[in-house]
Amino acid sequence: MPQTSRRGLLFGTAAVSAGALLTACTSNDPKEKDAPAQSGAPAADDKPGKPVTIGFAGPQADHGWLNAINEQARSRAKKYSEVTLETTEGSNDTAAQIGQVKTLINKKVDVLVVLPADGKALTQVGLEAMRAGIPVINLDRVFASPQAYRCWVGGDNYGMGLNAGTYIGEQLKDRKSAKVVELAGIDNLELTKQRSKGFADALKNYPNIELVARQAAEFTVESGQAKMAQLLQAQKKFDALWNHDDDQGVGALRAIQQAGRDEFLMVGGAGAKSAMDAIKADNSVLKATVLYPPTMAASAIDLARALGQSKGVSGLSELEIPTSLTLYSAVVTKDNVDQYLPTGFN
Description:
By secondary structure, the protein is α/β, with parallel strands linked by helices. It has 10 helices and 12 strands.
């Protein structure tokens, strides 16, 4: 599968929340008279402000996570009566997406939110928008130059692997000798490499655990089932499995059930609703999933609105929004699944 596929865009948490204005204040109350004044610009809040038109160039929804990205952006924009969202038809074709972004630039939108099919290939059009005075929120797959965007918002692929490995390590730390296998994503993608590196680094803290097999899949149900079947055939017994993606995890679970294997625990990745439902039911080997939340798209809309209204972020004293926002890869288990279920995607 080519690297520009939207599946390659795959794959920490909730959207930037709204809050009160962070303005300097004074008071005639003697108790507050000597309190230091807060500095900063007005922060974005839920009250309608200046009208803002946001251009959104997102992915074609050929994967559950990518479809959720589009839905999160649309639903968040609807929350604000003064926000108009100009959307393009999602595409994993680089040339087509460049044309779509150029159309949004020509429409003179106030802010652009772009999840590029290929960050490097779309860098030039990001630069074009910035030079035209249209700030760009770069979502997930990063442009090749920081001059091509005002703010980057995305997940933590290394953190996914690190947290998955730490969770597994804690479950197996008391075993004298434990074996772990890894069902990775598309191997030539940087995100897959980062997830695997984080996982390997976490396991270094548990000398009793050995990674005995690693198999790459393609972020699809079909590939998950086929590659998991191969792993099960090659490894007659192991203690834990980390699967990089919950979509391919559906297939992996099918292969596991068909093989009648249940001697190990499984940790998923991304945060699909189906995975959370299985974790809550607690009737399979799937015991946890590590988030790479599509709520990043809602966060991007929040930040774009703040940019368009020349506001900062609630809870921060800064005059401007940050240059980057990396979302946390929380581990969802049966103990906290109810908290995260609303963020699960189909």
